[in-house]
Amino acid sequence: MEATAPTAGAGANGSVGAAARAQVGPPTNPMATALLTDQYQFSMAYAYWKAGKHADRAVFDLYFRKNPFGGEFTVFAGLEECIRFIANFKFTEDEISFLKSVMPMCEDAFFDYLREVDCSDVEVYSIAEGSVVFPKVPLMRVEGPVAVVQLLETPFVNLINYASLVTTNAARHRHVAGKSKVLMEFGLRRAQGPDGAISASKYCFMGGFDATSNVLAGHLFGIPLRGTHSHAYVSSYMNLSEIPDRTLRNKDGLGICKDFVTLVQQWLHKIQVVDSLSSVFGDTNQSELAAFASYALAFPSNFLALVDTYDVMRSGIPNFCAVALALHDLGYKASGIRLDSGDLAYLSIEARKVFHAIEKEFNIPGFGKMIITASNDLNEETIDALNKQGHEVDAFGIGTYLVTCYSQAALGCVFKLVEINSRPRIKLSEDVAKVSIPCKKRCFRLYGKEGYPLVDIMIRESEPSPKAGERILCRHPFLESKRAYVVPQHVEELLQCYWPGSSNKPRAELPHWRISEAVACNSSKNCVPITSGG
Q1: Which pTM does this prediction carry?
Q2: Strand 57-63 to strand 528-532: parallel, antiparallel, or no bridges (unpaired)?
Q3: Low-confidence stretches of the chain (pLDDT beneath 70)
């Protein structure tokens, strides 16, 4: 991993330098300010300050306890937004005034302290964003003055929780769909508000999706945009007479078709009398034909039609084919169709048969490979069912179940104190799953001969690092019977310094958030986090 010289050091007044903020940039969401935390964080900060403990050096681990969706892996996301948050962490006078109004019992000197607070003395160590991760292994280790780090708990958990959950959901959809299918995120209208929609678009792309319908997300993050038209566009037309300008220039620019609509009608008649298609095609809906022709005139190089407004096989498909064939005469190639209702497996197979028949009948190479896109409340289960039935769908548009993470509301990240002033701390519970793992830790991923990860291990900071080729006894942190010897061929340290504060430690570069590891998550799903033997 590349590293750069630290730029997050304290300035003359102890604050994070403007250069660091400029390099990292502001949070994507302007609501991510120093006030974005729970009330009890300020109550604890005051109590720490009142007791003179606010500067005690604390270490917190951010982790989760169980993989989501009943699965065997999670994809870590949200790191970049956390770094943006702490780079810009500073209270404004307006925020200080508000805190005074809601905490009138606090001494004025406490608010003077808050005025000077920033993250110049905080260090953040993290697994790389986009990595496959597992329960109990720290995703992030945050070190710094206990009062300041306590103020970071809620925003960090907030920025990691949904980001990792929806990225994992997207990666699971990619896994079930396969690498060859195009996946498009269509969840804007069903997401939990504007921020939920923007976050979903970004992290679904990270999780392996190819495009989004969300124009703002495309603008902010450079995600490819996809979209055609809705049923409303098709049903808004009554007949072909509503198309005033019927001219269309040839793709090579050397000629002009003066009446594209008539050319479409001619092609519709030709395909309706083809013997192999006569039993499928009948009289089509002319208002739908008008909508398709009009849309093709607007987008001749990118014509993809929604074909299920009326009757897919008797109207939508033949009308689409007529327009596509007319475009072909002028040098254009139609993109394909979208199915938004009905038996998607059956309709995609029948549509493909028609495309192949037309390719053969009219000798048009590639017509049989027309793209077929499916939407209509798809999720992991429906895509898996389509795969088992057999289908001819090339691309899936997925919305509600993807962006809302319908089958699981939250990942359940926690932020636990594991060390203060170099002394380990533990949180005990009758529920073993809620017992924290104390002390400042380093985390490693051990790889086998074929390059696949075998196990994640945690060790104390003072222990020697595991080495390739050495036999290591690995033990489960809570189940004594779970232990194994591992001889790794490659060892990767997981926690890298992404925010060095005022230290002289090199800062790891944030990886580009387009994921590469999660799409191959099948090879990592057996990687189980356990501790090393001492």
Answers
A1: 0.92
A2: unpaired
A3: 1-18, 513-534
